[in-house]
Amino acid sequence: MRYLRARFINVTADVSDMLIAMLSEIGYDGFEELENELLAYIAEEEYKEAELQQVAVSAGVAYETEAIAQQNWNALWESNFQPVMVDNICTIRAHFHDIDITTPYEIVITPKMSFGTGHHATTQLMMRQMNGMDMKDKSVLDFGTGTGVLAIFAEMLGASDIFAVDNDEWSAENAMENIVRNNCTHISVKQGSLEDVPAGKWDIILANINRHILLQYMADMYQLLKDDGVLLLSGLLVADEEIIVGAASDAGFVLVKADRIDNWIALLFKKSKN
Fold first, then answer.
1. Who's near 41: CB < 8 A, 6+ residues apart?
2. pTM as predicted
3. Is 94 among the domain residues?
4. I need a surface site. Which of 31, 148, 158, 253 has the fewest CB within 10 A?
5. Is 201 helix (H, G, I), strand (E, B) or coil?
6. Cα 251 from Cα 125, distance rounded (Å)
7. Contact in structure between 223 and 245 (CB atoms under 8 Å)
8. What is the structure's pLDDT at 233?
9. H or E element that contains 86
10. Is residue 74 very low, low, confident or very high in pLDDT (cuts 50, 70, 90)?
């Protein structure tokens, strides 16, 4: 598989956040935020020049594109990947890092193209909220699992039945590798979407994706949750809060808490009884 890299130059942090949100909705699944630059990656067969032009015009930025082989991307990812500590709760590191761990939890991943290494604010927001939730013996659905980090963290927090799903084949394979590496035994992984999720009800749904997908599947997530179940969402900009809360309310959810890092938010909902 070949990937295409779009390089946006002279971008501020706010514009970079906006670009990531818009590009995620049209299939870009890997990002590198550099000083005044954003690199975005998409599978070559998913690339549409008109869509990229529309995003660039909306953001008022210039860009250039370049084809990049998957093996080169993996090498680049590994060379740039640094350990990250999430709120003194959990350290996420690659298997080749040899560092002292001072947090209660540690997750070791093989950094590939999958989203969710812990560096992005949305992953950190999700983990911060999860740490304050009761996950003991809970059933958890991780929708859009990426690297599997959230599913792995859910098991570490005591969840006993975890189902991780991602529509990207590479992500599903990477998640399975990382689950094995972290000695997890309560996580099942499947390539697919919510249509492929077992029919049983879930105590908790984790969804760190993007606004478009969350809106598309809001009613489905409501149906999959048990009564009084909990839905934790991120992959969202602060500007997305009103439309997401409105759609969640229409589906039957009640907002419990909103958390924020820079321009990104996580929203915690509870399923209301009909």
1. 3, 4, 5, 6, 28, 29, 30, 31, 68, 73, 113
2. 0.83
3. no
4. 158
5. coil
6. 23
7. no
8. 98
9. strand 84-86
10. low
